[in-house]
Amino acid sequence: MGSAYYSRAIEPRLRESLGDSPITLIHGPRQCGKTTLARAMGDSLGYEYFSFDDEVLLAAAHADPFGFVFGLPEKTILDEVQRVPEIFVALKSAVDRDRAPGRFLLTGSANVLLVPRLADSLAGRMEILRLHPLSQSELAGHRSLFLDRLFAGDFAQKSCDRLGLDLVDRVLAGGYPAALARSHQRRRAVWYRDYIQTLVQRDLRDLARIQHIDILPRLLTVVASHTASLLNVSDLAGPFQLSRTTIRDYIDLLRSVFLVNPLPPWYTNQLSRIVKASKIHIGDTGLASALLGHTASSLAADRSALGSLLETFVLQELRRQASGHEDDHRFFHYRDRDQREVDIVIERGAREVAGIEVKAGATVKSGDFRGLRKLRDAAGDRWTSGLVLYDGEATASFGDAMFAVPIGALWESS
User: Fold this and answer.
1) Residue from 20, 263, 236, 274 nearest 126 by CA
2) How high is the mean pLDDT of the chain?
3) Which residue from 200, 194, 202, 182 is spatially nearest to 291, judged by alpha carbons?
């Protein structure tokens, strides 16, 4: 695929933020494209660039954060700000003196929303945008209308080709630009494994002084094998001689660098038989596949593993598309004590709810909508539509705003 520049879904939101917010932070996992995006937009708008991966700048900012910030140019990009957490207080002081929009464009590879003292110090002064690894629609070079169609219940009957092994390849490839620049899956897997080792030795060591840091790649591999499952800390702790509390802390650490994304349960006050446990999803299926040692042939043959990774793949594609949408989308799962479940529940704004069930198979039956029908009843007049996304050929209505839709519709341009 080469080292092409990809237009990112959040670019319009980033441009808007620079036009009215004193500070804009782009955060997301390392190597997902934050620096490329910030520099591409910053260069066109006259920003100067400084990176805290430069050890001299890092030392200077640690030694005198206020002096460092007050000596910066009028428009500044600060890259990898999580390495200097004390700089947030200095940034607050600077923008309180001059609240001109677009003063600082920050990038960070750790989630400041999980460090309340950092986020709170810049409340009302900083807009936070999440950048994910590349979506399939970004790779295709267009904006997908899938979310708008989902909430409009707009899926006309039509046919298409099955994705088959192409879908397996997309799951294996993931969305990190540097991995995708490698043309062979074996070389991409090497990149992903090296990425985890580097991240553990660098960012995670900076973020937390933990005793057993060497187990984090192994723990992430266990998480990858449990992706799309209900979060069960005892299961995750099983291979390690560590307490459940320690494992939970380590999961939180992996979450803080966007490698793990919990999916909370959806429920209303009227529902009493709901399983109120989160699901656990790894942040990228290419990363998960590399950790688990999957190849195209092994993954295609292991339907259980493919089903779990495909559910994660669909969720992450939807999150990536939603990150650039002007409407607010929130993601959940649904499961009740009668084992009726929906893989992905999406709320748009305050009044709309949609549900998606994911199948790796090529057929859909009426019974596959059982959980979606239960969700529809629970959502009441907020309900818009329910889909079973599957690796088949036909888009078809099953009545009552329920549809079977081929997975490729996720990244179609029309």
Assistant:
1) 20
2) 92
3) 194
For residue 79, the 8-state DSSP code is E
Place of tokens 């802390």: 249
Q: How many other C-beta atoms lie within 10 A of the C-beta of residue 387?
A: 27
- CA-based end-to-end distance of the chain: 24
Distance, CA of 64 to CA of 86 (rounded, Å): 10
Residue range 328-364, pLDDT digits in tens:
999 999 998 888 999 999 999 888 999 999 999 999 9
Do the beta carbons of residue 403 and residue 363 sit within 8 Å? no
Contacts of 93 (CB under 8 A, 6+ apart): 66, 69
Return the amino acid letter for 163: L
Nearest CA to 57 out of 17, 28, 84 is that of 84
pLDDT at 327 > cutoff 90: yes
Two tokens, residue 32: 């997902």
Residue 120: how many other CB atoms lie within 10 Å: 10
DSSP 222: H
Q: Which long-range contacts (CB under 8 A, 24 or more apart) does 95-98 make?
A: 95/22, 95/23, 95/125, 96/125, 98/22
Spatial separation of the C-alpha atoms in residues 138 and 156, rounded to whole Å: 24
Digit-coded pLDDT (tens) for 57-107: 999 999 999 999 999 999 999 999 988 988 999 999 999 999 999 999 999
Q: What is the pLDDT of residues 115-136, one digit of tens each?
A: 656 666 777 889 999 999 999 9
- What confidence score (pLDDT) does residue 2 get? 43
Residue 186 is predicted with a pLDDT of 94
Measured distance CA(236)–CA(291) in Å, rounded = 15
pLDDT per residue over 23-66, tens digit each?
Answer: 999 999 999 999 999 999 999 999 999 999 999 999 999 999 99
The token pair at 104 is 């600082």
- pLDDT tens across 265-276, in order? 998 766 556 778
Beta-ladder partners of 386: 355, 402
Cα 202 to Cα 53, 82, 109, 183, 247: the distances in Å are: 10, 12, 11, 27, 20
Q: What six digits make up the tokens of 343?
A: 């893989």
Q: List, as one string, the DSSP characters of 308-371.
A: HHHHHHHHHHHHHHHTT-SS-EEEEEEEBTTS-EEEEEEEETTTEEEEEEE-SSS---GGGGHH
